[in-house]
Design goal:
The complex is a heterodimer of chains A (110) and B (113). By secondary structure, chain A is mostly beta strands. Helices cover 0% and strands 60% of the residues of chain A. In chain A, strands 2, 4, 5, 9, 10 and 11 form a six-stranded mixed β-sheet that branches. A five-stranded antiparallel β-sheet of chain A has the order 1-3-8-7-6, with no helix packed on it. The model of chain A has no long low-confidence stretch (mean pLDDT 93). The termini of chain B are far apart. In chain B, the strands form two sheets. In chain B, strands 2, 4, 5, 6, 9, 10 and 11 form a seven-stranded mixed β-sheet that branches. In chain B, strands 1-3-8-7 form a four-stranded antiparallel β-sheet, with no helix packed on it.
Chain lengths: 110, 113
């Protein structure tokens, strides 16, 4: 079993829909990251969370440390949101390396 | 402020050869970590360098080695390339223990034939 599990693996939505991507992890962490990866491979950091909730534009990330679970929400989705969304955790006490989930491939249709 | 730059962007090598990949860290960052991402998988941690010394390593054989230079740029070297080394190699820079987050490069896509 992977230490970081994401669901769903693939997600197709219509433009305007509300989207939720889930991440569960099995290790103690000092931070959780949500990242966006476009087809070219480059990764953009969206959020770093250690508790609570963060919002940036149409993106919202939440984390429940007790339940070891985080969600990424996209409101009013748009075709330009199409990408792979990756959850990554920094284990507590680590030197800084991240453990990544396999990613959720999101496709938003116009 | 500049981001993280990786070079080359694409590379094709023959099995058994050696390869060097390069990464320039974001201005002000002193820590660089390298990841290998196989097709359809999440990135896997290779190693991390902090102030020119390796301070963390994932489950990769010794033929994966690295360097960090005084300007905090970094190299990843892979010897005796194998077909399974074909992947996207990502570099991320951060400041110290990365409490402030990471900046990722666009990656180098390595194909071993």
């Amino acid at each position: 079993k992977n230490e970081v599990e994401q669901s769903p693996q693939n997600l197709t939505a219509q433009e305007g829909e509300f989207i939720t991507i889930n991440c569960s992890y099995s290790v103690g962490i000092s931070a959780l990251h949500w990242l966006q990866q476009h087809p070219g491979g480059g990764i953009v950091s969206l959020f770093m969370l250690s508790s609570g909730k963060k919002k940036h534009g149409r993106l919202i990330a939440t984390i429940n440390i007790q339940e070891k679970h985080s969600s990424l929400h996209i409101t009013a989705s748009h075709p330009r949101d199409s990408a792979v969304y990756i959850c990554a955790v920094r284990p507590g006490g680590s030197q800084g390396n991240l453990i990544f989930g396999k990613g959720t491939k999101l496709s938003v249709k116009p | 402020e500049t981001g993280v730059t990786q070079s080359p962007t694409h590379l094709i090598k023959t099995r058994g050869q050696q390869v060097t990949l390069r990464c320039s860290s974001q201005s002000g960052h002193n820590t660089v970590s390298w990841y290998q991402q196989a097709l359809g998988q999440g990135p896997q941690f290779i190693f991390q360098y902090y102030r020119e010394e390796e301070n963390g390593r994932g489950n990769f054989p010794p033929r994966f080695s690295g360097l960090q230079f005084p300007n905090y740029s970094s190299e990843l070297n892979v010897n005796a390339l194998e077909l399974d080394d074909s992947a996207l190699y990502l570099c991320a820079s951060s400041l110290g223990s990365s409490s402030y987050g990471y900046t990722f490069g666009s990656g180098t896509r390595l194909t071993v034939v």
